[in-house]
Give the backbone structure.
Amino acid sequence: MSQQKINGALMIKWMKDLWHYPRSLTGHGTRKTLNYIKNIHPELNIQAFKSGEKVFDWEIPEEWNIYDSYIEHESGKRFAELRNNNLHVLGYSIPLNEYMSLEDLLPHIHTQPDQPSVIPYVTSYYKNNWGFCMSENDKKKMPDGEYHVVIDAEKAPGILEIADLIIKGQKSEEIFFSTYVCHPSMANNELSGPVLPTALIQYIKSKYENPRYTYRFVFVVETIGSISYLSKNFLELKNKVVCGFNLSCVGDNRAYSHIESRLGDSLADRALEAALIGFDNVKKYSFLERGSDERQYCAPGIDLPLCGFCRTKYGKYPEYHTSADNFDVVTSEGLDGSIEIMKSIIDAFEIGITPKITVKCEPQLGKIGLYPSISKKGMSDNTRSRTNLLAYADGRHSLFDISNKIEENLSVVVCEARKLQKFGLLTFE
């Protein structure tokens, strides 16, 4: 694994390996997904919460496992077979083995009429229910007659599993990454999320033998998983986390999205703003437009310094929560873009975040080859980022602040900072 190049192509390979696992809040699909990541990073720590356990204002649900499901017409023709697509069964459906008419069956069939060719993703986690999902086009093909309705599922007391991995650094201060592992057979809104931190873990391991900061990676099931993790680790997170990101829908190549923290002024907000400077397809969303685990991490009384990062934000692309969210949506280029954004933030932390110039007044950059030897109109433009960085390297402005101030992408600022550090012109905290 260490010899494999960490890029979008490898992340696509991981996603395809994970595609067929029937993920949900609990059960064997989610368990297999976490074990797959653990095979890549053996130090992943998988934690279990028992059904009925209280986690803040919530309660861990029963474990749900799905083995098979289908609707069979009296002619023998089958519809909505689980073996064809994990989305065909309503998530957390109770077991069922009955015969019924089309009229009785239709209220339990979910479609997306405005997108008649796709299968919608539908769940009923916290109330006993059953149902099937199919395309509107296939629903219209269902003939009158008797149907055998089968949901081979198990819903009983069990466990909910989540996981974390901590890379210890010289500092106890932590950079926090969270993603979710509970959606079946959707590429962008699910699998792009967990493969990104899986890649970032390998990046840190390979580049920073003794990292400056501590890095915490969390793989949860959405909502109840983050709540569960917070219920056990809140005080530690509150004391240690200085910057965090909730990662979701990071695989398309259409946009970059920043979902602000509750107050919109965290270090994470400033870091992500800096990393996205210069891209013409950036969209910023207020916390009022939240929808993933940033809800829990930024809730009043929790208020971790965390914001959300996506390519196209969940709910903002037409394939979202349907069977059309596939490998036509997620691209290796899109994943490459996401990992580069997160790597630039990690690199900024690892150089030290807050630069301070080591000389009085303006340094003479020309004598070390960092400024043109010939003075001519326009010649200084190529060094503007370097000199602007020095102008604000006062020990009070972070690289993120400077990047935003001078309107230069964070990766460029980090590169310039390394050059100046090499010549002894900058120190870092």
In short: The first strand starts at residue 45 and ends at 50. Residues 63-156 form a domain with the Glucose Oxidase; domain 1 fold (CATH 3.50.30.90). Residues 39 and 367 are 51 Å apart (CA to CA).
